[in-house]
Specification:
- The structure is a single chain.
- By secondary structure, this protein is of the alpha/beta class.
- It has a single domain, classed as Glutaredoxin.
- The protein contains 6 helices and 7 strands, in the order H-E-E-H-E-H-E-H-E-H-E-E-H.
- It has a 7-stranded mixed sheet.
- The protein is globular.
- The relative contact order is 0.26.
Length: about 170
C-alpha cells in the first residue's frame, strides 16, 4: 500500500472520529465531469469494469468500508433508495482496501443485506479516479455518464440527487 492510500485512510479515520461531515460538492471529483471507469474486482476476485457498469445508465456509487461509522449511518438511506429506485438506477458499492479484504467485505454485505453490485478497489484505481476524500463518499451519475452529485458523510439527501439523475 502506498503513502497516498495510507493518508486517505487516516483522513477518513480522523473525519469519522471527529464527527466531521462535508456537504455535497465540497470535495472529490467535480460535478459535471464525465464519470471515469477503471478495472476493479468483484468480491469473487474476478475483474470488474467500473466504466461498463456506469455506461448502463443512472448509477449511485458509494465508496465505503466495513469499519466506517459514517457509512453505517448512511446505510438505511442507501437501502431505502435501492428499494425505491432499484429498477431505474443501479447501485454500486466500491469497498476501499484500507484494513479490509474481499472476504471481510463479502461477509459484511451478506450480514447487512446490501444490494447492488459490490466491488473491491484493491489498488485504489477508482479511489484515485474519483478523487475520493474519505469513505462514505457518494457519487451520482446520470444516464449520459455525467456526475451530477457528490457527497460525503452519514447524512445525505440521496433521494433529491437520484431524482436529478433520472
Amino acid at each position: 500500500m502506498d503513502l497516498k492510500h495510507i493518508l486517505r485512510g487516516a483522513t477518513a479515520f480522523v473525519m469519522m472520529t471527529a464527527g466531521m461531515t462535508l456537504a455535497a460538492q465540497e470535495s472529490g471529483i467535480p460535478v459535471g465531469s464525465k464519470a471515469p471507469g477503471g478495472m476493479l474486482e468483484g468480491l469473487d476476485g474476478k475483474p470488474a469494469d467500473l466504466g461498463a457498469l456506469v455506461a448502463k445508465g443512472p448509477t449511485v456509487i458509494e465508496f465505503w468500508a466495513t469499519w466506517c461509522e459514517n457509512c453505517k449511518d448512511l446505510e438505511p438511506t442507501l437501502i431505502a433508495a435501492q428499494k425505491k429506485y432499484g429498477g431505474k438506477v443501479q447501485f454500486v458499492g466500491v469497498s476501499v482496501s484500507v484494513n479490509q479484504s474481499p472476504e471481510l467485505v463479502k461477509r459484511y454485505v451478506a450480514k447487512h443485506g446490501l444490494a447492488g453490485v459490490q466491488l473491491y478497489d484493491r489498488k485504489g484505481v477508482a479511489v484515485d479516479a474519483y478523487d475520493v476524500p474519505a469513505t462514505s463518499f457518494v457519487v451520482v451519475i446520470n444516464k449520459a455518464g455525467k456526475i451530477i452529485y457528490t457527497g460525503l458523510g452519514g447524512k445525505q439527501d440521496l433521494d433529491a440527487a437520484i431524482k436529478k439523475a433520472l
